Amino acid sequence: MDAPAKSGQPLPRLDARLKVTGGARYPSDVAVANPAYACLATSAVARGSIRAIRLDEARAVPGLLDILTYQNANEIKPINFFSKGGQAASSIMPLSAPKIWHDGQIVALVVAETFEAASEAAQKIAVDYDEEPPTATIGSPGATVNAVADVSEEHKDPGFGDADAAFAAAPVKIDAEYSTPTQHHNPMELFTTTCLWSDGKLVVHEPSQYVYGMKNGVAAQLGMDPGDVRVVSAYIGGAFGSKGSLTSRTAIVALAAKRLGRPVKLVSTRDQGFTIATYRAETRHNVKLGADRNGKLLAYSHEAFELTSRPDDYNVAGTTTTAVMYNYGAVATRVNVVHADRNTPGFMRSPPEVPYMYALESAMDELAYALQMDPVELRRINDTAKDPNPGNPRPYTSRSLMRCFDQAAAAFGWEKRSPAPRSMRDGDWLIGWGCATACYPTQIAPAAARVSLTPDGWARVQIAAHEIGTGAYTVIGQAAAERLGLELDRVKVELGDTALPPGPIAGGSNTTASATAAIVKACDAIREKLFRAAAGSNQGALAGKPIADLDLAGGRIVAGDVSEPLTAAFKYMGQAAIEEYVESVPHGLAADAMEKLYRGRVALAGGPKGEKLMFAFGAEFVEARVHARTGEIRVPRAVGAFAAGHIMNPRTAHSQLMGGMIWGISAALHEATEIDERSARYVNDNLADYLIPVNADIQTVDVIFVSETDREINPLGVKGLGELGNVGTNAAVANAVFHATGLRVRDLPIRLEKLLPSV
Ligand code: MOS
Q1: Does the annotation mark 723 as catalytic?
Q2: How far apart are CA 656 and CA 221, in angstroms?
Q3: Model pTM greater than 0.85?
Q4: What is the whole-number distance in angstroms between the Cα of residue 213 and the centre of ligand 1?
Q5: Are residues 307 and 370 part of one domain?
Q6: Which of 168, 286, 350, 567 is the most buried (most CB within 10 A)?
């Protein structure tokens, strides 16, 4: 198929005006009749059990309607953790028993006539705990460790050859430990849930990256037929993984609304979001790289430790990506999880790639210095077109990594770099330039869609995909507009509602590829019907034309310089509209993938999993300036060049990549959740103390699109890029800081106090 014209245009978002005028209704904005308001009461200890809950004072608050605790509301049924085929973000069931698994666990839901009354009553709930000393983090007393490969059906530690022997024999080597901190989601839109019942049917308004997952999960928790549950999430105000799997609050709010016979609205607080939702777990990495004197890699070994909760083996296991990144001679990897008294972590933008590529790309930079080689050249020498494992030499469908490096290096002015650390300076500012590889697996999921077209040239596209801020309405609309020959404003796009055919989870950067595959298939079925009607008619300008010569443009059916209006084809068919429902199941998934999608289960093909490797790549270059007297760190400019197949919309894609790089700078220099070791509680659970960059911290961020055509990955040749931009930035910043100062900080974030030895 030729590259679609319309789908490459930088069109403004279909929902731009709605979003800036307040017209876009986020789930908690949806008006419901006569709502009651809910507030959560959460645990003040991280480990132990509830001895008593005293509710008298809370019950005395005027306007109080109900209080749900484990004593009166323990009827919610357990469902599987998502990696075990369920939808749950955690197997911790807060109102099922007095047991406390982590700080901030939900201990009660209070419902009242007003938000203020609910909030007051929640604060007046008095809980007595039998407290036990908790385990806070990796390395804390009481932490237990197990290898992921021992407990997971999905993960096998990649490896080949004898990496230990190759490392021992290598003339140049790096052996280093890197660590990344806990990071918490702080979406602008808080974690909200509104539930209403009528005639035994439940409607949930909640921001969700996977409405079919939520529908099926909540139905199972409440013992209902999934057909009696509808989940609506037309807009999501910040997701990035935090709204991808089902947290415990949803069923509790549904139960409260059922008991009360009245809609119930919950808007949890900012600090509660730290413990009732998921977060990016802290990680540690031991990385060894061995090379010959020309820079050819001989050995790569990587052992990682990831924090998780007591009951769940949540892990991201990014060695699956790092092990195919370069042409290593031998590889040995092992991923471990560390169980502590914490809430279960979860997805955060590029979950595996951010911490694991930070470790690998830092070690690659260290190796380049050890070799006295340009870090770009080290990547070039070790670039590979296939899986380096000789036992499984799967080719990449396309890999434009070095083209990304070359274009980003040229734009950055890399050739002016003086290689020695601490050799570039501007007055009191030490200047450092660093770079790193970005990558993200290209994944695709099953999707179903319905597209309809009327003779007056209006199309309607329906798919329960999700607008998480990425521009999904727009790019999905563009795909239909292109295939149906319409302007984008003639296409109505409906997303985020289980009343629509199921779309994929908005995770793993798969939405554009998966949704457009279904939309194109539906539109092609419509085209076929129209073309058959026009060409098969015994009247009209197109009668008898070969179907292959026909196209749709400007609301007409065209063949060269003759055309007919759509109305004519509809008249020949005797129809007032065409509606096509289609199912799209990507190559590499089992035949029951569509049925599983309807049941709210996630299946993704592609990335490192199939017969060929499918990845998008990028190269990121950063300038860091470190004040020689104070250690103050600034990043005045960053340049990223990215190859991600066909770019559906350069405007929204640019925003994704730029935003990703900004997040990468944030992760490198600002973000970390501080944990009190004694109590296993989060200390900075608010937007004043949880550091994120503001405009003054971010200066120039340039995004370059490196053209790339890949016809193997999916019908439109798109690689996902929502999670590509923030991979590599951490390492690029750390590498730039080393170049500026000569000090290697291997523990993120890099803050002023860690640079004091260099000033
Ligand atoms: Mo993304 S962390 O896969 O929502």
Answers
A1: yes
A2: 35
A3: yes
A4: 14
A5: yes
A6: 350
